[in-house]
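Entry for the shared binder. Reason: the reviewer on the internal report wants the predicted structure included alongside the sequence.
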Amino acid sequence: MKKKKLELRICSGFFALTIAALIGFSSCKNTSTDDSNSPSVPGTVGVGGTVVNAAGFFLSLVTTEVNSVLHVDDGASGTTNFTTACKIAPTVTAKTAAADILCIQELPEYDIYFRDLVYQIHVPSTMCDYLEEDIYWFYAYAPGVGPTTVSYRNNANGTVTNVANAPGGKPTCTYDYTATDGPNCCEGKYTLTVATEDPQNPGQFSTATSVADWGGRGSNCVAGQAALGTHAKTVTGYPKIMTNYISGEGYNQIYEMKAPIHATFNSKEVSSNLVTANFFKLVDNGGAAPTPVQPVAGFPTPQAYYEWRCMDRYAEINYRIRMMIRDWNTASITSGGDPDVVGNEAIFVNPFAPVNFLNNDFADWKDFLAAYPQGSL
């Protein structure tokens, strides 16, 4: 039995919110039409109004004043196939290969960092009963469970010996990063045993035992769009999937992403594009996804994609659109171009700083891959 999920909907205009925390889902009424003369390409159906069944299940960037291309992946996460819209036609048979598409959003890195991105999600009334929105998140630091035993000996001469998981007499967990101004992501309890020498009777020790909590939560390490703002969370702080009941009505609403320039992690401003730009290539990391979006044993699995699933009444997927956002370091976004140009800018230099002006100004997954971003987020 699957858990009910809190639903976060934007149901009228751009910014009205409906939160159905108790029943797990709700319905936002949309008018639908089967007019075969209606527009059938993304971006030509008005946001928040009539659902046009002939337009299909599509994702479209509403935000203006950005240089962007949103297209279906070319099959190799390359920079071609720019003309294929991020859309599943209503004629596509459910639960087939054609019913599952991966789309790539190409954007300049400064547009990603500076602009809030608003997407239109449009689903015909005939394609599914429920829509699940499963939004990108990752671990900025590794979460974990701390050791179950901690012990040390306080000697009368002021030294601390016989240490186990308590250097200098301080209980220490690898997943507590507060010593370096990071979050505490260490979960679990431990038994603390402290032996104290009697200064009046050298060699005689009294022992005290207690149980303590490491005090952290794995969710303190969570970052990404689903970790920001009012996005629904579990009681332990992890992002929830947003579920919308759309049977016979369809769906024509927006999803808004907060720009990195407005985002914080662990009460600090972020300086990279990682909270938004989720693009990666498996080939860049030895066939594996970047470590921060890989599963961690005993903890919820991150979501590497922006994902919209069109579901039937049996919680089976009829259609799916996944999206990755790729930032471009230089020049214009062109088919066959290189988004990952590195090195220094050719003309402008900074003679008074240790680093010149870079082509790659805002980090993305290609800059980390096997490492957690930690304080570099």
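Summary line for the report: The chain has two domains: 7-137+239-376, 144-218.
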